[in-house]
Amino acid sequence: MTALVGEDWAVHANCGGRFDELFAEGAAQRKARGICMGCPVRVECLAEALDNRINWGMWGGLTERERRKILRENPEIREWADILRAHDGKVPGAAHHPAPRRAAAAV
Q1: pTM of the predicted model, to two decimals?
Q2: For 87-106, what is the mean pLDDT?
Q3: Taking a C-beta distance cutoff of 8 angstroms, is the pair 61, 40 a contact?
Q4: Cβ neighbours for 60, distance < 8 A, ≥ 6 positions apart
Q5: What's the rounded Cα separation, in Å, for the pair 45 and 54?
Q6: Taking the CB of residue 27, how many other CB atoms lie within 10 A of it?
Q7: In angstroms, how far is the first alpha carbon of the chain from the final one?
């Protein structure tokens, strides 16, 4: 289980009070991912979901399908927080991990 050192990371999450939006399906998942991508605790959130094998909702910007794939590809990893922090919040070697989206430059 992810250890919370000194405080609960969830109180700093962008999704506070918006939980219904994080359990979206289909195209609505893009909106949920957008909530996550600018979040100051995205790495902690994703680590929590991976460490605890949470199989529902958007956590740390990844859908349950994306997280299941990561877990299948990395069955030996039991604690994700340090690994994610060391790789700037990305899963090492995972081409499918979404990068934060940047706004298109105005022409």
Answers
A1: 0.77
A2: 60
A3: no
A4: 36, 42, 43, 44, 45, 46, 47, 48, 49
A5: 11
A6: 7
A7: 47
